[in-house]
Amino acid sequence: MQAANRIQKALSTQRGLSFGAWQMLPGANHARFMARTGYDWICVDTEHGNIADWQMHEAVAAIAATGTSPIVRIAANEGWMVKRALDAGAHGIVVPLLYTADDARKLVESAKFPPVGRRGFGSPFAMGSTGGVSQLEYLQQANDSLVTIVQIETKEALENVEEIAKVPGIDVLFIGPWDLGNNIGRPVMGAFHDDLNTAIERIRQAAIANGKRVGIYCVGGETAKKYAEQGFHMISVVADAVALPTFLSNELETAKGSKTDAAVPTY
């Protein structure tokens, strides 16, 4: 299983760098197109994306078939949501809206088979996305082979980030800058406020100090490059719902001869 999990292999290297893209629009073909573009992972977003449960299942299988890791962002820290994503064959889960270390421990309990946690066993689908292992092999290897990612995006999670980072079974602290900015009273209106940058650095340091990886959501390649140079590991470069309208409008402006070079935001 570990050999088939591209994101885990990337995170396990000395540098630990991986780049991903965010899928918010439904469709197995859409997921497959995204997965073939060279990213280490594609995150299927069932929190804010227009993706239902059955569409998540289809997207996970389509992404995994290309050799790219399917990651699923569930809508909340609910055990049944964790189970549905992992049973679909996700190589990892992103979980939003955590507040405390107890929330992180609750997540680990949902994501891991006994004796570590209480995840139920029985999915006939997960093995197809994790290297074609047998059900018994999946049961024996899943706890060590799947990636558990918590979003740090609330004021409370920031205040408790050092304790969250200590929780065994959590692999990545993933920063959602827009929600984090809103929740600490520094909404993103362009360039990040100094207080938000300080909060982001606090999260990065908490992760590193506790042997975790740190990730962040970006809206373009320039920003992603900056965070890669700063030592971040799991970096979302762009979302389909951002890339598609941006590309379409830019190409139309080029066709009309009215495109002007705009400054790239440096978030």
TrEMBL record:
GO terms for cellular component: cytoplasm. Keywords: Lyase, Metal-binding. Coiled coil: none annotated. GO terms for molecular function: aldehyde-lyase activity; metal ion binding. Signal peptide: none annotated. Residues 28-240 form the HpcH/HpaI aldolase/citrate lyase domain. The keyword Lyase applies. Belongs to the HpcH/HpaI aldolase family. This is HpcH/HpaI aldolase/citrate lyase domain-containing protein. It comes from Aspergillus tanneri. The lineage of its organism: Eukaryota, Fungi, Dikarya, Ascomycota, Pezizomycotina.
